Amino acid sequence: MRLMMLQLLAITITLISSGPTWGDELKGQCVEGERQALLKFKEAFGNTSNRLSSWTSRGDCCKWRQVRCNGTTGHVISLDLSRSYSNGTLRGEISSSLLGLPYLTYLDLSHNDFMKTQVPEFLGSLHHLEHLNLSSANFSGNIPYQLGNLSCLQSLVLSSNDFNLIVNNLDWLHGLSSLKVLDLSYVQIGSVENWHDALNMLPSLVELHLASCELSNHPLSLPYVNITSLEVLDLRRNYFNVTIPDWLFEAGHRLRHLYLSQNKFEGQIPDKFHNMKSLVSLDISKNNLIGPIPSTLRELANQRHSLLKELYLGNNLLNGTLENCLAQFSGLVALDLSQNNFEGVITEAHLDKFRNLKEMALSSNRLTINLKDDWVPSFELEVLRLAHCRLGPEFPRWIQPQKSLYIIDLSCADISDAVPDWFWSLSPTIRYLNLSYNHLTGFVPDLSSYISLIYLDLSKNNFSGPLPLFPQNINVLDLGENTIFGPISHVCAMLGVNNSLDVLDLSFNNLSGNIPNCWTYGQSLTTLNLANNHLSGPIPDSFGSLITLLTLSLDRNNISGKIPLSLKNCKSLVLLDLGYNQLSGTIPTWIGEELQPLKALILSSNAFEGYIPLQLCQLKELVILAISLNQLSGAIPQCVFPNMVVKQNTPYINGLYSRIDFEGEYISHPYLILHYHDLVPFALIWKRNYYVYSGHYAGDWALSSLKIIDLSSNSLSGDIPQEITRHVGLKSLNLSRNKLNGSIPLNIGEMKSLEALDLSMNQLSGSIPTSIATMDELQIWNVSNNNLSGEIPSGNHLDTFDSSSYMGNPNLCGHPLTSKCPPEESLQDSHHRQGQAQGWDWDKIHPFYLSMALGFITSFWAFWGSLLICSSWRHAYFHFLSHICDKVYIITPVVVAKLRRQFWSQQVPK
Ligand SMILES: *[C@@H]1O[C@H](CO)[C@@H](O)[C@H](O)[C@H]1NC(C)=O
Ligand SMILES: *[C@@H]1O[C@H](CO)[C@@H](O)[C@H](O)[C@H]1NC(C)=O
Ligand SMILES: *[C@@H]1O[C@H](CO)[C@@H](O)[C@H](O)[C@H]1NC(C)=O
Ligand SMILES: *[C@@H]1O[C@H](CO)[C@@H](O)[C@H](O)[C@H]1NC(C)=O
Ligand SMILES: *[C@@H]1O[C@H](CO)[C@@H](O)[C@H](O)[C@H]1NC(C)=O
Ligand SMILES: *[C@@H]1O[C@H](CO)[C@@H](O)[C@H](O)[C@H]1NC(C)=O
Ligand SMILES: *[C@@H]1O[C@H](CO)[C@@H](O)[C@H](O)[C@H]1NC(C)=O
Ligand SMILES: *[C@@H]1O[C@H](CO)[C@@H](O)[C@H](O)[C@H]1NC(C)=O
């Protein structure tokens, strides 16, 4: 009994002395000066400091939530203010009162907003610091060299400050002799001469992250980095366009994680993996690598006790037959071979040995997946990507037992089947589901219980039935090009309090009824595409709440009424497509005044009347203006649209980005990839082939060169304004079927980018300017049915057009018309020749040429737009196109020109 008492006493004493949590008055309690320092530090964050509410002027600061003290001395040793630790962003500056915490060893300020202030120099005086994390904290300016005084520092994270951190030299790194972890991702260290020398001075470095550091800027090759001590090397997204260097494969190192993805590494993958015994994960996806998977890599994976678990080779140009080697990877947990040129027929025999596979990505190769329905895999997948594989025609039953899937991509997989019921109850944790571009049938059931589902693409199938219910958390919902019918009233249910819906595409279905007026909650919506349905009624007023909307397309419905005034609140709109409806009234002036970012305005084929408002001239970004087939009258405003004046492509990327890309990966940086939204504006133009890009950086996007003015089929009168010829970047100008008079501007030939110029069916007079002959790109040229006179200019390209371009101008003469021009001296008498046109072959006038109505945007570019992208995107893109899903071919420019003509002449209306 006494013994027990003694023991209890002893335990109590130990507990009391062991830390401040036990309320010892003397030991381990906050030092007053440090509490004051913390309070002052908090003050600088103003009213954003709510989450530091436990920081009060009384009480033990060692008990405050984000603070830790040394249990013996009571000095503050750790401050963890990362947002990921608690909630709410701190916004403000770092107070120098931090210097009142001299024993700080751990300081994490990541994921806050320091408002582009500099990283303070005084941090270099916190000599005990071992961990400093300033990641994603909106710092900018120079990284102070004083950080080099932190000789105890073991980890330094300066990543993801939006490229705003600058380094002029890295010599200060020498002082960090204890450094084990260095993360400079998104800091532009590539501009530092010999950046690698500074890194090579760090003897104990274990982790090195240099993703997106623009290292390839200078020098162009990947210089030697001493990786002897490294376990993690991250060189993602640096756009190296060299071969993968040999030094990465030197003997004697213990690299465990090697990340080289999203560069432009070329050549073959070095066959030197025999030295890479420690390798756990290898990511060399998204490069330009060619050739086979090297045999040493296959052997490494195939070894008995191989450590290799993750292999990402996707999105390269690798080739070979997978049948021979797939089984060698059976020890892997993640295997990504997607978007390469692998071929083969994959059967159960190749997959039977896989036990631990969680991620299988074989999309976009030339693979046939031939698995028996009753095959039961011995692995449990979480990620399955078999897009563009030959998987069908039956829906793959072997997926049924896979209950952990959260990413499924079976798009464009040749499946022509009904989706079995079990599939829809597959996995409640599914996040990403893409079944697009198949021939799937059946009704889509109520999916509202799939609370994890954030991306659903069922487009381009034969799904039918009424619009199902979807979960409120969904980000991207694409049901385009199915036969879904009935009202859309319950889309409102998706626009719940979470405001998470980003993309809603229900285009090309049979939806009908009014668009509900319930968009007040759609405040994160960026793309709303309801085109090609049978929707009727007015444009709802509550669209005005969609302040983040970039793309609004209601094209080809039966929508009537006026454009509601509330739409002027949608100040982010880049594409506004209301074409082919029954909208009436005038074109609102506020479109020009308020919708400044607008790049494409499509109001064609409605019942708009009145003038084209002068205010449209204020749309500085505009590249597509299509208001044909209305009842507009008055003169063409003398606008000059700056973006059409330049020949350069205007990237559609600027300022647009999505939180999610095609592969369902979250994207944190807008520079990386072209996203869904950038492509959607063109969905309308080239049908829905916006399904394109995932992978390489495409700084320049050919489609962004589409520059179009289409004012055809109205009652516009007056002259063709001289200003229009300043739009030298324009690809297509259609003013046909109006009441324009006056003459064709003399310098029209300066619009050298024009591929289509249609001025037919007006009352234009005078002669055809000879400058036309210098327009080398012209494929479509029509001035028929005007009152033009004089000799048709000739030369160059112009000679390839036939008489149909000129029909119905009784006073025109010369090739290709049959009427000869009078000799030079009598030209001025040309008026007298009015009655002499009997020689004309009126029979040849095809109705088509009389009515070159513009389904131009939607049909011409549907075809031609697709061709344009091909030439620019090459291989990453080629993968996509080479698969069955798109009827797009890569053709030489010569054939293209021919085809364009052919295509155009097939557009002849009956
Ligand atoms: C914080 O204060 C600023 C100006 O002092 C004010 O604009 C802002 O609305 C306040 N924020 C909160 C959440 O109170
Ligand atoms: C606390 O401070 C004492 C005395 O300086 C030191 O020996 C001990 O290692 C410190 N403990 C921690 C957890 O830092
Ligand atoms: C997050 O914020 C809420 C409300 O402001 C608060 O009740 C909660 O305690 C905070 N959580 C943390 C971990 O700070
Ligand atoms: C970064 O700070 C600047 C300047 O205060 C501010 O305008 C910007 O919105 C901040 N960025 C982020 C992502 O918080
Ligand atoms: C730094 O902060 C970021 C963001 O909170 C976090 O992801 C990362 O793990 C931290 N790094 C270290 C080394 O603590
Ligand atoms: C790389 O660093 C190690 C020490 O970390 C050193 O022994 C070795 O000589 C260095 N290699 C080269 C080529 O500089
Ligand atoms: C690599 O990139 C640089 C700069 O971007 C360029 O000058 C060079 O021609 C490229 N080399 C190859 C082989 O593409
Ligand atoms: C792989 O591609 C290269 C050219 O990049 C070619 O020479 C080789 O024949 C291809 N191999 C196979 C198996 O297709």
From TrEMBL:
Superkingdom as given in the UniProt entry: Eukaryota
Record's protein name: Uncharacterized protein
Organism: Bauhinia variegata
